Protein: Dehydrogenase/reductase SDR family member 4
Amino acid sequence: MDQSSYGVNRLAGKVAIVTASTEGIGFGIAKRFALEGAKVVVSSRRQSNVDRAILRLAQDGLGERVVGVVCHVAKAEDRRRIFDEAVKLGGPHILVSNASVYPGNWRISECPESVWDKVFEVNVKAAFLLAKEVYPLMQKSGGDRIIFISSLGAYLPLPILGAYTTSKVALLGLTKELAGEIACENITVNCISPGYIPTGSSKRVRLGYFKFCAPWFSVGVTTLTTTKSEKRVRGYSAEQIRNSR
Structure:
């Protein structure tokens, strides 16, 4: 589906941070936000990925709305870098915590401690720290949206993805707890749980009894939760993919 016809400037004047946004769902979200009029901080752990994503967005006429930053979300200095860029642009108003790692297939009973620690450091701890650190900045900028990207695996856990799916369940708890804490400050916290989308790590763990779904579906749901008309959406919005089995 061509998303270019969907830009109606619903996010004009907003500054968004989207982590891990140089490919896959993250790139789709960043592009859609820019099409909707937002200025977007795009990030990846690799400079080459950042450069490639910025070039693609520039070719779509969105170069003036995006800035690229190298960021490993588990590193404090890198998180400060993306926040600094967002502040320069007048934000941040929106945070999409999309970064996650999938270090291979491990049953919980066989998962090495080092693998477990890596998964939770990036998928959960970094998400917590991003939200904690963006909160005072949003208080100053008038920001009002924090979105975590979980997974359908949080609802349909699979033995071979033990550490990964457990980390995605943890994001649901983080979302609900944080949503309740800061709701009175007019900041909503939501969680999107995409199904199996043919990008990145999903391609490496293709399971025959699940259907792939289109990336634009997750992008659309994420964009919807950032618009003013959907301010009433709180807690968590789980994107349950119909006919996923």
In short: The beta strands are 15-18, 39-44, 66-70, 94-97, 145-149, 188-192.
